[in-house]
Specification:
There is one protein chain. The chain is mainly alpha-helical and about 200 residues long. The chain has nine helices and two strands; from the N terminus they run ααβααβααααα. The chain has helices spanning about 10-25, 40-50, 60-75, 80-100, 115-120, 120-130, 145, 170-175, 180-195, and strands at about 55-60, 110. The longest helix has 19 residues, at about 80-100. The termini are far apart.
């Protein structure tokens, strides 16, 4: 049992992460979470980890909506609808702006998905520099590591076996129907303009 003065939510979470790593015979200097849904809980995460570094990956909302719709309800639940996916993307931006008003600017980094897949090496170097990590040989060959992960059993994640590519940029142009696009634009058009996507 932890001493009374050490009983904080952060210490408990850190302990769970460290124990999980030990069980997998893995070591780490820092740890992070990259779940897309994390953006929806920033207010709570920031309360527990106010000194953490946050990286916000923004992508054209129309491509995000298209991706959620293709994943269907079986994978994404309610977010697989055009309207819910659009509001989900918009909420993510709103939460990021909430964080930007409160966190130390030196602990925040914004990355565009389109830049990441078009210039992966320079973008990844920038991210590693922001995190204070060294660039290791083979850092871009992540597909050789991801093949060991169980998440590849999910059809929606099969693309993770491929090297970084930009083939998913602009898929909304041919895959969203006019009605789907109209619904999406009514909800997120102003945010798309703000970020230079429209």
């Amino acid at each position: 049992m932890l001493p009374r003065g050490s009983r904080s939510f952060q210490i408990i979470i850190d302990g769970i992460i460290k124990e999980h790593a030990r069980s997998k015979q893995e070591e780490f200097k820092i740890w992070g979470d990259k779940s897309p849904s994390t953006i929806l809980f920033l207010k709570y995460i920031y309360r527990v980890y106010p000194k953490s570094k946050f990286i916000f990956l923004i992508r054209d909302g129309r491509d995000v909506v298209n991706s959620f719709c293709k994943g269907e309800e079986e994978i994404f639940g309610d977010i697989s609808s055009v309207e819910n996916a659009s509001y989900n993307w918009k909420t993510g931006l709103k939460n990021w702006h909430w964080l930007k008003k409160r966190a130390n600017p030196e602990n925040l980094m914004e990355v565009r998905y389109e830049d990441l897949v078009n210039r992966p090496e320079s973008e990844i170097r920038g991210i590693l520099g922001f995190l204070g990590l060294k660039v290791e040989k083979g850092i871009l060959n992540y597909e050789n590591v991801v093949k060991k992960r169980s998440l590849l059993k999910n059809p929606h994640h099969m693309g993770l076996e491929l090297p970084i590519h930009n083939k998913n940029i602009g898929k909304w142009k041919t895959e969203l129907s006019k009605q789907q696009l109209d619904t999406t634009m009514k909800i997120i058009e102003s945010e798309l303009k703000k970020y230079g996507y429209f």
